[in-house]
Structure formats: structure tokens, C-alpha cells
Amino acid sequence: MGTKVDLDPIMEALVATSALEDLERVTVQLRDTLGIDHIVYHWVDSAGEQYGAATYSETWIARYAEHNYLRIDPVILGCFQRFHPVDWKRLDWSSKAAKAFLKDALEHGVGNQGFSIPIRGPHGQFALFTANHTCDDAAWAEFTESYGRDLILLAHYFNRKALELEANRQPEMSRALSPREVDAMTLLALGYSRAQVAHSLSISEHTLRVYIESARFKLGALNTTHAIATAMSRGLIVV
Amino acid sequence: MGTKVDLDPIMEALVATSALEDLERVTVQLRDTLGIDHIVYHWVDSAGEQYGAATYSETWIARYAEHNYLRIDPVILGCFQRFHPVDWKRLDWSSKAAKAFLKDALEHGVGNQGFSIPIRGPHGQFALFTANHTCDDAAWAEFTESYGRDLILLAHYFNRKALELEANRQPEMSRALSPREVDAMTLLALGYSRAQVAHSLSISEHTLRVYIESARFKLGALNTTHAIATAMSRGLIVV
DNA sequence: TTTCCACTCCCCCAAAATGGCGAGGTCGCG
DNA sequence: CGCGACCTCGCCATTTTGGGGGAGTGGAAA
What we know:
five-stranded antiparallel beta sheet; elongated; alpha+beta; Beta-Lactamase; homodimer; Arc Repressor Mutant, subunit A; 239 residues; DNA-binding
């Protein structure tokens, strides 16, 4: 952790990975290169499913999942609301759930110092890239100071790769909406009733219904609200 | 655009800015340092309000707003769906609206080459950081190759600063939803009817209605669909 | 301690949305 | 030329929502 090491080989290895499992190898490589305790890439799916590439012990990972720590982990909770990379010391560890969690984590090999970078993708995807170590505050401040930028870039590359690999697994097919359908959906999302929308678009309310039904069908939605939610999360309409 | 220039002074200037107007000066500084036509930081508020720090001409910016180009700009539309930085050539310019937009843009001083980095913050905030220039494909490929990483970092710093400055202007007006309200909104967004949601949450349909109405009130929404759309665009629920 | 908020439950009724049936027209593409 | 996609319109029955009341719990904050 003394002088700054070159992380370019790691970034290249990261760009070259072609399977989710390989991400774990990159975390190990990165951890060893940086000479710290742990590197964690933790991604939370839009449905709440989580996936991680971490150097943590198997037991800690299992324990984390088993106790549903996702719900109380102050790192997740804190980072979810902000954009900035954050030092763990600046998070809120005051609740008793957080204290218990921290104690448990330290007992399972997690270091006392942490630096996490929240990062977001389309469709509400959220991920966290974390560097973790055991040392005093001064040493950690020095580390985050010198590697902050690299960690941001690495977080970006990790997330890009994860999204890329995930996309291969689920090739989401979505037919585009017609212009009129987009108009209708947009106005509905803005809170107008069908009558108001029909009036706004200068068409009969029945015609409007045809658009809505057509859009619902295309989006595989069960009702109008669902269609709006789907269209929004797919970026088909902007509100 | 030949040899790689040092961008550290710009990053430091960026970190030091303390007003939104100063961001514009940084874009100019950055544009001149890189020797390209334009640098644009374009942020879209959760409510659809936009703010930008760009080196574009006043007339183009006014025209963009006036014609509501936000809705058809292929750069916005394309980047909203992805995480990767993207070269403008790889976007979908096939629609006639896109072609008209492009023609108009080129006539107002926008370069033919572009490289945009989508970036997201909490509460559904979305922003775009763009480098724009007039040159051939080869020269542009060389530029993006050598400055890609720096642009990612700059996008990150721009966004961080914008969020920081914006937070000062609007001190958290939107009240958060209660856990039950989030549950209700989420299930509704997934297409369930009130009866189904009530059953899923093991509460009476009436209780559910109270949550929905409460959420509607908090979000200032006119109906359920509007509430869902608002909650989604504010990042209060994730679907 | 009192006050506020989140959470839970009940009634009734009007308005809105939805589903199913039908009918036409234009436009572009193979 | 036919086919499909888009745009436009009408009626009727059913389901879903929204709006108006009122009432009780428990926990957290002031």
C-alpha cells in the first residue's frame, strides 16, 4: 500500500472477461495488487436479486444472504441515496441493527476500513464497488486519496461488464410504441384521465382506448398502470 | 488533438467550483484544452426539468428547448437505456424525426462526431456528459480511444458537482413514502389490481386504498397511474 | 405526556376504466 | 395486389377506482 501501483493490467483483464465467474478472479487479482484485504463488486437487480464478485469468505457471503443483511447493511442503505463515493466512517452506524451487523462482519474477516462507490445502470440497476481493509484512519485516508480515481474507473468497468454479461443472459425484446401510443402513454403518466388525454390529442376517447390497449399488448402489461411503469423503465416514454 | 494533454488542472477546477454558473466556465476550459468543438453536461431532473452546462451556442440551446428536442434527441433516447459510454455513430438515427434533428443540429454548430457518457444519480436523476467535434471517423476514434477514461472521470465529477450544487438549491422537498406505501406502489406498478395487491400484502382492500391515497397526496399525483409514474421518476420505487 | 404518524379496519356510491363486439380509412412493403 | 401496421370511430356490460364519511392501535418524536 506504499507507492502507487499500476492498475492498467487489471483494467485490461476486466475488459477482456467474458463470464461472470471471471469477475471474481479479477477481484482477487485487484485485491492482491492493491495489497488490501478485500475487493467487492455487489450488484442489486431491479427485482431485488443480488449478485456479487467478492473476495470475502464463503461463510460471510452465505451469512450475509441468510440473514438478509441487504436490508440493514448501512453501506447499501447509505450508498443507495447518494452519488458520491463514500468512506464507511461517514455512514450511519448508529442503529443497533447496524452495530450488530458490523460486529458480525468484523468477526467474519471484513476489514474495519471501507470505501464504496455507488453506481447505477438503466432500469433501476444499482451496484456497489468496495475496497476494504484493516488499518488505521490515517493509512486508509492515504489509500483512498491516491486510489480514489482508479476505484471510480474500476467501478465503472466492473459495472459495465456485469451489465454486458447479464444482458447476454436475458435478451430483452421490446417492440417500440407508435408515436400516438407514446403520446397517449406520456399524457397518462402525467396524470390526465382518458377523457382529458383524448381531448388533448383531439381524438375520440374510444380511439385513445385502442392506443392504450395496443400499447398494453406490446408491452405485455396487465393494465394501464403496469404499461406506464413498463414503458418508463424501458425508457420508451419520458416524464 | 494530437498528443494527450493533462486534464488534472481541469478536474481540480471542477472540484473547486461552487456555483452552477461556474460549471459552464469549466466546460469552456475543457473544450479549449482538448481542442474540440464542444463539451456538454446535460442533466435531466426527476421532474423532467433540464439543466445544462454547454459550450453550444445560445441559439442552439434555445432552439433545443423551444422544439422540445429532449423528446426526440437520439442521444438522450439512446443513452437513457444503456450504461456504456456511446459513440454517436452507434445510435439509432433512422427515424425521420432524428434525421431532422441532426440536420438542425449540424446547422447550429454541433459537430458531426460525438461521444456521450450516461450517468445516473439517486432519485432517478439522469445526466449526459458529451464531447463533440467535427472530424472524420478515424480521428474521432483516436480521440475517444485516448480520452475515454478521462471523460468517464470527468462525467463523474461533473455529476457529483451538479448534484452537490443542486442539493443546496432544493432542500429535499419530496416527502418519502412509508414502507407500506412503497410496497403498495411497487405491486401496482407490477400490474396487480387493488384487490390482488391487498391480498398480497395481507391487508384489506380499504387499507390499501388509504396507502394509495396517502402516496398520491405525498407525491402530488392526480391518480394512481400518475403516482406510479412520479414515484418511479423520483426513484422512490424500482420496477 | 401529548401529539403526530404509520398502520389497520368498515360502510356506501358515483365516476372512471376496461373488455368485448363491431366498423371504416390510409400508407408502405413484398 | 394483398397484408399488416397505424389511425379513426361507436355501443354496452362489467370491473375497478376514487371520494366521502368514521375509528382504533402502537410507536416515535417533541
